[in-house]
Amino acid sequence: MATSEPNHKPRGRMVKILATVGPASRAPEMLEKLYRAGVDAFRVNMSHGDHATHAQTIADIRALEERVGRPVTVLCDLQGPKLRVGTFKDGRAVIRHSGHFTLDRNPEPGDENRVCLPHPELFGILQKGQRLLIDDGKLRLRVIRASADEILCSAEVGGVISDRKGVNVPDAVVPVPALTEKDRRDLAFAVEHGADWIALSFVQRPEDVAEARRLMGGYGALMAKIEKPAAIGRLDEIIELSDGIMVARGDLGVELNPEEVPPLQKRIVEGARRQGKPVVVATQMLESMIEAPTPTRAEVSDVANAVYDGADAVMLSAETAAGAWPEEAVTIMHRIATQVERDPGYAARIHFIETQPDPTTADALAQAAASITETLPIAGIIVFTGSGSTARRVARERPGVPMLVLTPAVKTARRLGLLWGAHAVSTKDIGSFEEMIAKGKRMALRHGFGTAGSKLVALAGVPFGTPGATNLLHVVTLSGNELERYGE
Question: Which among 84, 92, 105, 138 is annotated as catalytic?
Answer without folding.
Answer: 84
